Amino acid sequence: MTFRKQRTALITSTALAATFAASTATAGLFDSVFSWGDDRGYTETEHPIVLVHGLSGFDDLFGIVDYFNGVPGALAEDGADVYVPQVSAANATAVRGEQLLAQVQEIVATTDADKVNLIGHSHGGPTVRYVAGVAPDLVASATSVSGVNWGTPVADAAASGELDGLGDIVFSIVDGVSGANLPQDTGAAIESLSTDGSVAFNQDFPAGVPSEYCGNDGAREVNGVRYYSWGGSDVKTNLVDISDSLLAATGTLIDEANDGLVPACSMKLGQVISTGYKLNHLDTVNHLFGLTSRNAADPVELYRQQANRLQQAGL
After folding, report:
1. Rounded distance, CA 301 to CA 169, Å?
2. Is 157 helix (H, G, I), strand (E, B) or coil?
3. Using one digit for the tens of pLDDT, what is the confidence trace for 196-226?
């Protein structure tokens, strides 16, 4: 069992975050120490919520630093049953998808749940789409957050393969520190996230995908699975957030509105909640240190809103 179940009490982490850079920059932050007031039941969904990390991601580091910083605890505190699986930090979408599928099957087999609500960030977007496509009977909804659904020029630029060996080493370290021993394949991950790789994936898994790039006509429900998406289109959102500089550099490779790693148009899937939040790619998982634009939506609150949206839909 490689997934982690979030307890119903809000967990506070007190460890310094680590920053990782390989074709993306990730890293952690403390879990949010925040009370959501009298909202008990606000995030309680019919089916468990499963949060799926992106490229170079993890469930948690050293058992204390969450990839989805502050999100699992905030969801659980107000009623959600939350699981945080770990899949390969870097690998092909299908490989990550099969790893996730095995954990979803285990969640269903060991609880009274018959389906789950999948929420994937970045490469986690296509990863949850894979599971929804091959096992729709186990999935109530698939939500893509800053998802690479039509590829990204950042992956196109990294497709030379020169960094594959180094990437495998870095991602293996991330994987090991987070307590797993999963295979890493940087080249396969980059290919999956490239424009050509993503278009090929969409041909096999078209559910929720708009009829054309940047379209808004993606099916909202396919084979009983509801599809949602949201993300941001700002890059430098806080002057004291060191990760913003890295995203500003990668963002120059994209000649349209983007979050530093993914074009806003590439994020669209199913019911598009918004791809225009004043958040960058790491802000949408509340990193680093929860530093976002002063006028930006609270990332943790956006996950809570999505949980409530699922609740209202009977999911």
Report:
1. 35
2. helix
3. 999 999 999 999 999 999 999 999 999 999 9
234 included as an active-site residue: no
Please give the domain boundaries of the chain with CATH numbers for all domains: 4-312 (3.40.50.1820)
- Residue 114 among the catalytic residues: no
Alpha-carbon distance of 157 to 164, in angstroms, equals 13
| 98-113 pLDDT per residue, tens | 999 999 999 999 999 9
Look-up of token digits 């809000």: 10
Residue among 259, 266, 283, 287 flagged as catalytic: 259
Taking the C-alpha atoms of residue 97 and residue 90, their distance in angstroms, rounded to an integer, is 12
**Rounded-to-integer distance, Cα 170 and Cα 2, Å:** 20
Q: 3-state DSSP helix/strand/coil percent for the chain, to nearest 5? A: 35, 15, 50
How many C-beta atoms surround the C-beta of residue 5 within 10 A? Answer: 17
Which of 13, 122, 192, 243 is flagged as catalytic? 122
N residues, the chain:
315
Residue 296, by phi and psi: left (phi above 0), alpha (psi -120 to 50) or beta?
A: beta
271 versus 66: the higher-pLDDT residue is 271
E strand or H helix at 174, and its extent? helix 164-177
Q: What own/partner pairs with CB < 8 Å and gap ≥ 24 does 7-13 have?
A: 7/76, 8/76, 8/77, 9/73, 9/76, 9/77, 10/34, 10/35, 10/73, 10/74, 10/76, 10/77, 11/72, 11/73, 12/73, 13/64, 13/65, 13/66
Query: Exposed (0-12), middle (13-18) or buried (19+): which is 213, by Cβ within 10 Å?
Result: middle
Active site residue 47: no
The residue from 53, 121, 281, 287 that is catalytic is: 281
Candidates 184, 179, 182; CA nearest to 62 is: 179
